[in-house]
Design brief:
Helices cover 0% and strands 57% of the residues. The chain has no helices and ten strands. It is mainly β.
Length: 106
């Protein structure tokens, strides 16, 4: 008999197994309006693949937010320092709201 973890939903479908990779959030921060580059220090006791989400999709019309891409982000990791930079896409407008960033690992 094999041993291990296997979770199933109410229909009996497997939703999680022992060899699945799970993510965890390492850092969350906000990029203020008008700031185009910066860096953040991540925890040093980590191993795995880093992922980064830049929530930069917004344009405000009559106090309503719509999802419109406005910038391109590049990031690099050196040791435990995550550096990022933003460039405004051709024909796009500059961000008018702070950008929320989530950094995780899996």
């Amino acid at each position: 008999m094999a041993y291990g973890l296997r979770c199933r939903d109410s229909s009996g479908n497997i939703t999680l197994e022992i060899d699945d990779r799970l993510s965890r959030v390492l850092a969350q921060f906000t990029i203020p309006v008008g700031v185009n580059s910066g860096s953040v220090t991540l925890p040093s006791n980590r191993s795995g693949v880093i992922w980064v989400i830049f929530n930069d999709k917004e344009i405000r019309v009559s106090s309503t937010d719509f999802a419109v891409p406005i910038a391109k982000y590049n990031y690099s990791l050196s040791g435990n320092i995550l550096s990022w930079s933003r460039s405004i896409r051709s024909g796009a407008v500059a961000p008018t709201l702070p950008v929320y960033v989530v950094v995780g690992i899996y």
